[in-house]
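Subgroup meeting minutes
Present: P.N., E.W., G.H.
Scribe: E.W.

1. P.N. recapped why we're keeping a running log of single-chain structure predictions: easier to compare across weeks, and new members can see raw inputs and outputs side by side.
2. G.H. added today's entry (144 aa).
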Amino acid sequence: MNKFIKVFAATALLSIAACSDTPVAVNASDICNEEYKDVLVTVEGVIQLPESFYTTRASVTMVFEAPAGKYRIPALHIYTANRSGEKKNMIEPLNEGFTDADVKIYDDKGGMVKLGDKIRVTGEVIGASKEWCEIDVQKIEKIN
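Output recorded in log:
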């Protein structure tokens, strides 16, 4: 019995560790609920500027184009730098008075992503509620 408990506990720990590295594919319209809070997800959509957003020295908030419906679409928390120093999975900082042409987003290969492009993002869901919902973006893939 004791051996069974140890094997069960080890299996459970390995399963949890394996699951945390594998993102869950979710529709953007389904993410903003407690079920996905602190979960690594992957989601597809067309990137655009939100009606209002914030930018800091470390990140810029963007959104997916919202298809018709009454649900919350998560904001995309994209960093303005990455640890490797390469222009990958990041956005250039935006200065006051910027235009759409100033928005420079880089995918996981270092390619440019423009507003209106379809992308897939992978990241952890933070603030998964109707009032506040963001994806802390770790990876940006451009979809052709």
